[in-house]
Design goal:
Blueprint (H helix, E strand, L loop, with lengths): L13 E6 L5 H13 L3 E6 L9 H8 L17 H4 L6 E7 L1 H8 L6 H7 L5 E5 L3 H5 L1 H12 L3 E2 L3 E4 L5 E5 L3 H12 L8 E6 L4 E2 L5 E2 L6 H12 L3 E6 L11 E4 L3 H9 L7 E4 L6 E3 L18 E3 L3 H6 L6 E8 L3 H12 L3 E6 H4 L4 E2 L2 E4 L2 E4 L3 E2 H17 L1
Parallel strand pairs: 1-2, 1-3, 3-4, 4-5, 8-11, 8-13, 11-12, 13-16, 16-17
Antiparallel strand pairs: 6-7, 9-10, 14-15, 17-19, 18-21, 19-20
């Protein structure tokens, strides 16, 4: 489970989920479950074709509400259910959205409950296509998708992978977690719209020999949360990630690296083209002076390693002429505020985020102190995605000032 599932915003109060025909309809059940888990009221609209893959009983059990299918019997007391269901909704999301549904939507068809709701809506509309790769690549489908995008419909995916027809290619519906994350992102204030953000996350690995190395306990969760929050805020985000198995937040460009030298190269190659640099990663401060070509065999004698300092990535970016707005992280084991304050001044950073390393590494929560020219501002303990959203808001406020 990714961090995208934590703390859906309170403003995501009600969502209409439309389900059309396709084997990917089973993923819609998981989407409904995730929305309900986050306190969202979900109204499911199931087409006749969708009901051939997943039953209304499934969606009613997951949502705790009646499932709607008929244009003529939608449960509305005023007989205007084809409109009423969309009123007060924060979003309508059609997942899966078949090629047929996309075509009818693009041309304004309103011959069933779901298509009528989409035309009569006052809220954002999301569609998650799912179909065979040739159907997706077909010129007619691509024209329809282009028209929908031009009409303001948000098209989520599709993904590339194994399809139900046992072929591989583009056309696979996005996973429920990714769709959920996109709905959450749409609710966030776009305080970084038009900004380009570079984030580092995770540990690095400094090889001693082909099988051993120096690393640390950083999980990368905080850096990935900052990446997601920046993308939610409307920024164009590039993530430089050390060794971690965390999933890439939707819409983010990811660059995977291993060593601190790799991370430095990736960051310095991109630093001149970004507005904000957030150094969340925990790169190694030292690396072996010489990597052994063969595995070092165990013996009864002590083993001595000579280490040399690695590149100070954050310091190098902050020292550049016309540097981006640089935000550092300081994970200290003691004297957190004092040591982080010294680090901020030494590296000439406008803002640094300080925390206890032993409390942050590997934990789902974090408790930090923001330190800038005005002093130290402690923030309450919260989960890392909520904290990342708060940090992005603080960065945006400082940029305005």
């Amino acid at each position: 489970m990714t961090t995208a599932l934590q703390n859906g915003p309170p403003s995501l109060t009600r969502v209409v989920v439309g389900v059309t025909g396709g084997i990917a309809a089973y993923k819609a059940a998981e989407l409904v479950r995730l929305l309900v888990k986050n306190g969202t009221t979900v109204d499911v609209v199931l087409t006749d074709a969708g009901a051939r893959f997943v039953t209304a009983t499934t969606f009613q059990a997951l949502s705790g509400r009646p499932v709607h299918s008929s244009l003529w019997d939608s449960g509305s007391a005023d007989a205007m259910g084809h409109i009423a269901l969309s009123r007060g909704a924060d979003a309508i999301v059609v997942a899966p959205a078949s090629a047929d549904f996309l075509a009818r939507l693009a041309h304004g068809a309103a011959d069933d409950l779901l298509s009528t709701l989409c035309l009569a809506r006052e809220c954002p509309l999301f569609v998650a296509p799912a179909m065979n790769r040739q159907m997706w690549a077909n010129a007619a489908t691509q024209r329809n998708v282009a028209r929908l995008t031009g009409d303001g419909v948000t098209v989520l995916g599709p993904d590339t992978g194994e399809l139900a027809c046992r072929e591989n290619g583009e056309g696979r519906m996005l996973e429920a977690e990714t769709i959920f994350a996109a709905l959450v992102a749409a609710q966030q204030p776009k305080v970084l719209a038009g900004k380009r953000v570079l984030v580092t996350a995770g540990p690095t690995f400094e090889a001693i020999d082909p099988v051993r190395g120096i690393t640390n306990r950083s999980s990368g969760q905080m850096g990935f949360a900052v990446t997601q929050a920046a993308a939610e805020a409307g920024a164009e985000v590039t993530l430089v990630a050390g060794p971690t198995s965390l999933a890439t937040p939707h819409g983010v460009t990811r660059v995977d690296v291993v060593s601190t030298a790799d991370m430095a190269d990736a960051v310095l190659a991109r630093a001149a083209s970004v507005d904000i640099f957030v150094a969340v990663a925990a790169p190694a401060d030292y690396t072996p002076e010489r990597r052994q070509a063969q595995k070092i065999k165990k013996s009864g004698e002590p083993l001595a390693l000579t280490l040399k300092p690695t590149t100070d990535i954050l310091g190098a970016v902050a020292a550049r002429p016309g540097a981006p707005y640089c935000v550092g992280f300081a994970a200290e084991s003691h004297d957190v505020v004092a040591l982080a304050s010294e680090k901020r001044l030494r590296k000439k950073l406008p803002l640094i985020v300080a925390n206890l390393a032993q409390n942050a590494f590997g934990s789902a929560d974090n408790e930090v102190t923001l330190i800038d020219d005005s002093g130290a501002t402690p923030l309450p303990k919260m989960d890392k995605l909520a904290l990342a959203r708060r940090l992005v808001a603080e960065i945006a406020k400082r940029l305005e000032q």
